[in-house]
Design brief:
Belongs to the immunoglobulin superfamily. InterPro entries: CD80_C2-set, Cell_adhesion_signaling, FN3_dom, FN3_sf, Ig-like_dom, Ig-like_dom_sf, Ig-like_fold, Ig_I-set. By secondary structure, this protein is mainly beta. The chain contains five helices and 95 strands. The chain is 6% helix and 47% strand.
Length: 1167
């Protein structure tokens, strides 16, 4: 019905929208104008693809919809009636893109996006956008007579047609892969509007050979082709099928062969008209086509017709050969049905059924080794042309046949197939004897005790099923039945009750033979009262009234005595005469009077019936429901603590009866109402819950509760605790140098606890923090005798145990008068005085508050209006820098003393700076030792004035007894710390340092002072590693003697060498001496022959050494490139050293857990 109404409804609907749209355009609003952010553009897609025309509207206030050829599609995004059309995109961003799925020829037209007017804007229409749908051509074909064979030498016109394409398809004709020229192309109208048929026509002269094997090809984009050929061929033949009968599950391999034809024949196989294979091979030399079919035979192929057909392009009808096959197959299933269970003497009826088979099977029945002949057989047509067989058998069973195997056998003569189906025969017969093993009937048993009764049954098939009964009613609690050789047993475990007294128990034995045999027994039981009942004379109980309770104890054997219990109290009641009751027992009665209070509410009054014979009783209680006004518990808290922003629960421990209590909460004499503050919530027990509690909620809460019996009230204090917030009382804090600074921070917190404040210095260097104190909510940090190091930021941390702690930063500003930088580099400035250079005279001061500068030249205040002089001031923290630039320095005018004065409110400081000509540098100062090793010394100094040029440093040193000096240039040049390496252990050296620039060099540091340093000693470790399977004793002795001799020779040589050195070489003089030790050895030191006599150990010289030599009055100067080399030394073994002696140890170590023992010898030599 919907599809019939759509053509009518949508034109009407769209017409209405069109009218509404142009109506809106005529009456636009006066507010924000709608506009297109994105308008649709022309789009080209293939047929079947998805096209999206984009439309995005800014400030859309009207209705957005699309028009197709002027026909409105509707405002809904799903576009009902156009299942392939929809509007997509985010409407909140003004996106109304038109999506067309599975584009078709009918979609090839123009579209526009329209927005109707609204109260705030006039309507707008986008530019037209064309959707171009490209359609490929349908299957091409040759337009010519295909049935008439061609004759050699004649002309034929070949026309190829590519129908229904958009745009027009292009056709190319080929022969043997070569394009045919001269083809004429033209077009005609297609089957639908906008579709075109492309035609390509060529005239072709047919030759007998080789044209009979190669034909023209028509090629259209995309690649489609057709061929033309003509020759005859012979009918096919089938090979591989010698007889028509085939067994199922066998795989047939058949070959179909067709000879001749041009082109050679195409072959395909069919079975009952259904195509099985369309694959074939061609043998051009043998002029034949062949196709091999592999077919697995199934029962469904019975009487199937296999056919092979051959054809080519010029055959009017295919040629074929066919064969019909007969399939021999076995039954898929053999089913034995019917019950193999029967009662002794009954007849057994069974059936045996086989599914379809070819040929049909024969069925025989066997019971054990005996064949049963009382059978009947029915045969019917089955699946796949076979036959089904049903055999029915009848037999009367006896007890002796129980457990024998009954077999149905099926045999197929055609396939020699045999299959059987067997099952056991079950014959039922009843049990023979039943008896009960139970306590004697005259022995009394205690109620609650457990009695085990066992029922036995023997004989029967199947074994008997035992069932227990009590007074004719089945008992469900019996244990699982068990079996033994002769029969079965089932135990009944009874926990005795009053109802078991003189009850009759019966055990029935049955099986599938449907005959029952029974056995009986009885029990005598002593029991406590079977029931208890308490009644009250009043229905409503109130505080202060008297209550009378009556207790009735049910049947018991022997008789029980009644007593009353209330909490820890045992009460005495009034007894009545006993009387006979059920189960052969006796019933007793008692009454009790009780004065009620509120404490009795919900308490239980217990009535106990006790049997002295059984030493056991039965209880029953009566719960008191006493009415009383509200009462507050002694455990009711009067103060509640809670953390701010948490949920506060003020418990109300009130009891009353009736429990319908109404309570009113007052805070600061105002009634709390949930509707006025959403944070208030009352629990079922009238407790107050305050969500997101704040410090304003703290205070006393008054609670008044009442019920139908009266009223009562109580007061509760809410203590709201909260984490601290802290702020500085004063920030920043200003203090003069040497005075006392007080840093104060104030916390708002609850609770205020002792020691909740702590202070932290936020600077990098450590300072003395001062004294920390606390006065209530204020934390104080008092710093006495403030120094400049105390200036900076301090953190005040407040922590009252409630997270998070709070902190505040206080900046301490230490005020002091200016202090100028006055080192040697600050007192001189050098520049050429030829009028071509510019000099910068720098004056830097540190002070607080702000420092101002004034300059004098030769005692006269400088005038910076002069263009040759310019002052620049930079300020960074407490540092203030004034730089005077002197342009075109003149030796006559500018070589003078410039005085810089820095002042603030606390004082002033002055520095004289001399502008001089460039010269050699001043000598360094404070030359000192930093560290010393066995082959190296680290030195440090303070540079002097550089003379106005870049300066570098040079270290001079020599051995204490040497006649020559060694020089090392410091690198990098500006470094003021340097390590001299390549020294000898336990040797005294003299060191000096001076400065050099492009003009010259300075004197040596500290008025040509010499720094005397002695290097540390070194420990030599020598390891000897000997391999082998063992070291003989004589070899050990020889090795020890040789090593000892070498050591003695070495020591003698050292001793005489030192004496010769002292007697021949004059010492190098020094004016200052300091000593030190080290343990570093440089094995790569480069020494020339002239300097070897200055060293204790002659290490030789290297071919690539770089040595520079000069001569002076006192010493020869040698320049040695310095290198750092640290040899790997194993950890030394234990040592013993005596005064003035050198001791040597030889230690041999034999390793363990090795297949080849090895020896290690360790030698230690002290020099």
């Amino acid at each position: 019905m919907k599809s019939q109404h759509i053509p009518f409804m949508f034109p009407f609907q769209c017409a209405c929208f069109s009218f509404f749209f142009f109506f809106c355009l005529m009456f636009p609003g006066t507010r924000a104008q709608q506009a297109f952010r994105t308008e649709p553009k022309n789009l080209t897609v293939r047929m079947g693809a998805t096209a999206v025309l984009r439309c995005e509207v800014l400030r859309a206030s009207g209705t957005v919809q699309w028009a197709k050829d002027g026909f409105l599609l509707g405002p809904e995004r799903s576009l009902p009636g156009f299942p392939r059309y929809s509007m997509i995109g985010n409407p909140k961003r003004g996106q109304y893109h038109l999506q067309i799925e599975d584009a078709q020829l009918e979609d090839d037209t123009q579209y526009e996006c329209q927005v109707t007017s609204s109260e705030s804007s006039s309507g707008i229409i986008s530019r037209l956008a064309w959707l171009d749908v490209r359609i490929p051509p349908s299957k091409p074909y040759f337009d010519m007579d295909m049935s008439t064979p061609w004759e050699a030498g004649k002309k034929y016109t070949v026309t190829c047609v590519a129908p229904d394409a958009k745009p027009l398809a292009e056709i190319t004709l080929y022969k043997d892969g070569v394009e045919l020229t001269g083809a004429e192309s033209f077009s005609t109208s297609g089957s639908k509007d906008k579709l075109l048929n492309a035609h390509a026509e060529v005239t072709y002269v047919f030759s007998c050979l080789p044209d009979s094997f190669s034909s023209p090809t028509c090629s259209i984009s995309p690649s489609l082709s057709m061929f033309l050929v003509s020759l005859v061929f012979t009918p096919p033949v089938i090979l591989g099928l010698e007889r028509n009968e085939v067994k199922a599950e066998r795989t047939l391999v058949l070959e179909c062969v067709s000879y001749g034809g041009n082109p050679l024949a195409t072959l395909h196989w069919t079975k009952n008209g259904e195509v099985l294979s369309m694959t074939w091979e061609e043998d051009v030399v043998a002029q034949k086509s062949s196709s091999i079919l592999k077919l697995k035979i199934t029962p469904a192929d019975n009487q199937a017709e296999l056919c092979c057909e051959s054809s080519n392009l010029v055959s009017r009808s295919p040629l074929s050969v066919s064969r019909k096959i007969t399939v021999l197959f076995e039954p898929a299933e053999l089913t034995l049905s019917g019950s193999l269970t029967a009662i002794e003497g009954q007849e057994l009826n069974l059936s045996c059924y086989t599914t379809s088979s070819n040929p049909p099977v024969d069925i025989r029945w066997w019971l054990g080794y005996k064949e049963l002949n009382n059978t009947s057989v029915a045969m019917e047509e089955g699946d796949n042309g076979g036959m089904t067989i049903m055999s029915n058998m009848t037999h009367r069973v006896s007890r002796e046949e129980h457990g024998m195997k009954l077999t149905c056998e099926a045999f197929n003569k055609g396939t020699h197939f045999s299959k059987t189906q067997s099952d056991e025969l079950s014959v039922y017969y009843p049990p023979q004897k039943v008896w009960i093993n139970a306590p004697p009937e005259d022995v009394p048993l205690r109620s609650g005790s457990t009695v085990h009764m066992v029922c036995f049954a023997t004989g029967g098939n199947p074994k008997a099923t035992l069932a227990w009964f009590k007074d004719g009613t089945a008992v469900t609690g019996a244990l699982q039945q068990t079996s033994f050789d002769m029969g079965v047993a089932r135990e009944l475990v009874v926990v005795l009750t009053a109802s078991d007294n003189m009850a009759s128990y019966r055990c029935d034995a049955t099986n599938k033979a449907k005959k029952t045999i029974s056995a009986y027994t009885k029990l005598r039981v002593h029991f406590t009262p079977v029931s208890m009942k308490i009644t009250a004379q009043q229905e409503v109980l109130r505080q202060g009234e008297a209550l009378i309770l009556e207790c009735q104890a049910g049947s018991s054997s022997p008789m029980a005595n009644i007593s009353w219990i209330l909490g820890p109290l045992r009460l005495q009641g009034v007894e009545e005469e006993p009387r006979d009751a059920e189960f052969g027992g006796i019933s007793v009665h008692s009454s009790l009077s009780l004065n009620l209070t509120s404490q009795h509410h919900n308490q239980k009054v217990i009535c106990q019936a006790y049997s002295h014979v059984l030493a056991e009783g039965t209880n029953m209680y009566y719960k008191l429901n006493v009415l009383y006004p509200p009462e507050f518990s002694p455990d009711q808290p009067t103060e509640v603590q809670v953390l701010e922003d948490d949920m506060a629960v003020i418990p109300l421990l009130v009891s009353a009866n009736p429990e319908e209590v109404s309570c009113i909460w007052l805070h600061r004499r105002e009634k709390l109402v949930k509707e006025e503050d959403y944070r208030y919530h009352w629990l079922d027990d009238h407790s107050l819950e305050i969500r997101n509690v704040s410090r304003n909620d703290a205070g006393v809460y008054a609670v008044k509760c009442e019920n139908d019996e009266g009223a009562n009230e109580i007061s509760i204090t809410l203590d709201v605790q909260y984490a601290p917030s802290v702020k500085a009382e004063k920030e920043p804090v200003f203090v003069n140098l040497g005075e006392t600074a007080d840093l104060i921070c104030v916390a708002d917190a609850n609770p205020i606890i002792a020691g909740m404040f702590s202070w932290k210095w936020l600077g990098e260097e450590e300072v003395e923090m001062g004294e920390e104190t606390q006065e209530d909510e204020s934390g104080l940090l008092t710093i006495y005798n403030v120094t400049r190091a105390h200036a900076g930021s301090y953190e005040c941390l407040a922590n009252n145990g409630i997270e998070p702690p709070a902190s505040a930063h206080i900046r301490l500003v230490v005020q002091f008068k200016p202090e100028l930088r006055k080192g040697p580099q600050w007192r001189k400035v050098a520049s050429r005085g030829d009028g071509t250079s510019t000099a910068e005279i720098v004056c830097q001061a540190e002070g607080v508050p702000r420092v101002d500068f004034s300059w004098e030249k030769s005692g006269v205040l400088m005038d910076f209006e002069n263009p040759r002089y310019e002052e620049m001031i930079m300020r960074e923290g407490s540092f203030h820098t004034s730089t005077v630039r002197v342009v075109n320095v003149s030796a006559v005018l500018d070589y003078a003393v410039f005085s810089c004065t820095a002042r603030n409110s606390l004082g002033e400081d002055k520095l004289d700076i001399q502008l001089i000509s460039t010269n050699h540098p001043d000598p360094p100062s404070s030359f000192r030792q930093v560290s010393v090793g066995h082959d190296s010394v680290t030195l440090e100094w303070i540079p002097g004035f550089n003379g106005g040029l870049q300066q570098r440093f040079r270290i001079r040193y020599c051995w204490d007894q040497s006649v020559s000096f060694l020089y090392v240039d410091v690198f990098p040049p500006s470094e003021t710390t340097f390590t001299v390496t390549g020294l000898q252990p336990v040797t005294t050296y003299n060191f000096s340092v001076n400065a050099l620039n492009a003009i010259g060099e300075s004197e040596y540091a500290d008025n040509n002072a010499v720094l005397t340093i002695t290097t540390k000693e070194i420990i030599f470790l020598m390891f000897c590693k000997l391999g082998g399977s063992g070291l003989p004793v004589y070899l050990t002795v020889v090795l020890t003697a040789v090593l000892g001799g070498l050591l003695v020779f070495n020591l003698i040589g050292c001793f005489f060498g030192l004496r010769w050195k002292k007697s021949v070489i004059p010492p190098c003089r020094s004016s200052q001496s300091t000593a030190g030790n080290s343990n570093k050895y440089e094995s790569r030191e480069m020494i020339n022959a002239a300097a070897q006599r200055t060293l204790l150990v002659d290490s030789g010289s290297e071919a690539d050494s770089n040595v520079y030599e000069s001569y002076a009055e006192e010493c020869s100067h040698y320049y040695y490139p310095t290198g750092v080399y640290t040899p790997h030394l194993s950890p030394p073994p234990e040592e013993t050293r005596g005064l003035g002696k050198t001791q040597t140890w030889l230690r041999a170590v034999r390793p363990v857990n090795t297949s080849q023992p090895k020896y290690h010898a360790t030698f230690r030599v002290y020099i």
